[in-house]
Structures are given as structure tokens and as C-alpha cells.
Amino acid sequence: MTSAPLATGSPAVAPPSTTGRAGLLVLFLLALVVVTLAELIGNVAIPLGHGKIILLPLLWALLMGGGLGLAAPRLPHALRLPVSLQVAAGAILQPALLLFVAKLGLLVGASLPKILGAGWALAFQEFGHFFGTMVFGLPVALLLGVKREAIGATFSVGREPSLAIIGERYGMDSPEGRGVLAEYLTGTVFGAVFIAVLAGLVASLGIFNPLALAMGAGVGSGSMMAAAAGAIAAQQTPEMAKEVATFAAASNLITTTIGTYFTLFLSLPFTVWAYGVLEPILGRGRGRPEAAPEPAAAATAHAAPAFGLPALVLIWLATAAFGLVGNWLTYGTRPDGQVLVGGAIIVGAVVVGEVLYRLAGRRLPAVVWVSLIGMALTYPGTPFSAEIAAATGRINFLALATPILAFAGLSLAKDFPAFRRLGWRIVVVSFMANAGTFLGAALIAQFWMHPPL
């Protein structure tokens, strides 16, 4: 399979007349309302035995945005979200995700000494996290008849950086883009429940060292890590329960910070290769050429708007401002001078990364450049690294995720027919991918902690 050329901040297609400045202003106002309501709802904890599931504002933003699009035919004309704006929201999603990538890069630089001192077991178990999704999920997806969507759905657990990677490599309107977004949706709604039940069941069997299971719990999602670690710790002594929480947090830190590089340079290429090998063997209709995917109605009727660098800067500034709203409402951090400086640094890292991406001839994805800029800014020894880490550290990375997921939700309705075609199959595939990342990491950590004689 050949991949699409690496995209820039947005597809190079002329914007249609139906999506002018007024339409984009309406879209940003809708996004602000969605973000504000989602952050006002805040974190909702649901008890699950000895653990709990935490539903974050980003989930409410995703659901409200999607609900606006799906309910559009039944809403008053002033509140309808036309397909043209849904397409524009999908185009905004891709560059907006770079803000989240920049925040992760800033976390990586400041945490490098801690990551390097975590030990071999904690280091090598990451291969289980990043390959387990494909090993467990891809064969099942192919057996169920899922086609190229299987690549996006199984190369990772489909968190925000994975959306950025697939969006830049293939575009969010591609089968791979629909697959990773469907995985994100399924994982967000059901992932914490599933991983908590699975982790508790595996822990009760007494086969694994609890610390190996704790490392497996660090899948790169805060809510899923909390649910899995809680289910494991509930079956341990108080002393071991504290160690489980410590190792799960360390594993989750590594998965969150270096996950972009693993998924970009290892997981995704390997999954693309494995799909090409396994699809003719396991896929439905094996032996016959794969039919080209049907174009979505939105894609045929509306072209995605193109954004030059000045427009991209406005998108990043607006998205960062929405993130600061959530940072205030949910995490109680007022947008004082230091917080505003932190937001400006994050936006600046994205702008510099985008410029370097273009100057380098677009040979490396923008996510790599943005991540490297963020890491360099907070690496110990870099001038003013402590001050930069302090300023950007006051902005919670989940607050930046909420406006991004608001745009994702506002773009969902146009792709709903594709999700409906995948149906229950993508839920099964998502569960297998989540099981793979947990069990794969736990198996490798167990080996390093108890190697065979």
C-alpha cells in the first residue's frame, strides 16, 4: 500500500464560498460554547467496585459537538451546523492538534532525567504498549471485514497524538482517519470501563507480578490508567498498592511523552506493512483487489478549506485561548501573566515547528518538529528551561485537549454513515487493541522482572 503525501497544516484545496469568514466565526463561537459547557460539567467520577472511572470534559465536548451535527436537521435554522462547517471543523482539527503535541514535547524535555532513570523493565515494556494494539487488534479487524480503517484503529490506542499523526499522514477524511477517530470515540466512551474490568480480572488470577501489571496500566490515557491501576491496587496490600500507583504513573508518563515517536516511526509503519501481508490472508474478499472507498457525501459536496500560515496562527491562538478557559474552569488556574506567557510559548513552539517543517521541504511530519522544539525548550540545561517549564506547566494538557475534541465532535456528523457501516465491529476491534496494549506491556515487563533461567 502506498501512503498519501505528508500534508501541511491543512489540505491544499481552495475554500468553497459556503465557508467564508462569517461561517468560520460561527464555527469558532460554537466551539467556544461547547468547550465552556464541557468544562462547566467538569470531571465526573463513576465508582466501579474498588476503583472508579473518570469522565473528562473532553468527552463531553466530543459528544456535544457530535450531537449538534447529528441533530442539525431538527434544530432551528440559526443553530444548524451545515456540512460545509463540519468539513471546516475537520480541517481545523489537524493544525489544532499540534498544540497538544507541543505540550507533550514540553513535558518530555523536563522529564527526560526521570524517564532515563526508570529502569530496563519500564523502558522495554513500552514495546508492548505500541505493538500490542496491532498484534491483538489487526487480525480481528481483518477477520471482521474491516479494511483500511483497521490501520488507524489498531496502530495505537487512538489518543490525541495518534489523531495528529494519522491526520497529517493520510487526512482525517481517509479510511485511516475514520479508523483512528472511531478508535478514539470507542476508547473514550468504553475504554476505561473495559480496561478496569480486564486489569482486575488478570490481577485476580495471580499470574503476573503486580508491578508488571501496573506498567501495563500506563497505556497513555489518564482515565484508563487510573481505572486499571485502581483495579489492580484494590487487590494488593496497602504497601504494594502504593507501588502499583507509582509504577503505573511512571509508565503512563513514558507512554504519553515518547508515544508520538514510537507510533510515528515504529507502530504505524509496522501496522501498514502487516496490513499488506495479512489482508490477503485474513480479510474478507481475500484474493480480490481492494475496492476504492466510497467518497463521503461531505467530501463530494464541499472541499476542505485551505489555511495559510497567518490563518493557522489565528487557529492556534483561538484554540489556545479556549484551552485557557478550560484550564480556569476545571483546574482553577486563572489566566494570569505567567499562564498567558505559557500559552504564548506553546503557540510559539507550534509556529516555529511549522516553519521548520516547511523549510525542510515537508520531509518530516510537523509533529516531529513541534515535539523537538518543545523538548529543547524544557531540557535541563537549556537557558530559562526552568522558567519555561514553570509557565507551561501551569496549563494542564487535558485543558488543551478539550477544544481539540470540540472541533472533532463538530466534524463527526458528516462521517456518521461511515461509523455506522463499521458498527459493532469497531467496538470489538477497539477492545482488542486496548487489551493488546495492556497485556503486551505487562508480558514484557514480567519477562524483564523475572527472566527465564
UniProtKB/TrEMBL annotation:
It comes from the Bacteria. Keywords: Membrane, Transmembrane, Transmembrane helix. The chain crosses the membrane at residues 20-41, 53-72, 92-115, 127-146, 184-205, 212-233, 253-278, 311-331, 337-357, 364-382, 388-410, 422-449. InterPro entries: DUF3100 (IPR021450). The keyword Transmembrane applies. It holds the Pfam family DUF3100. Coiled coil: none annotated. This is DUF3100 domain-containing protein. It comes from Methylobacterium terrae.
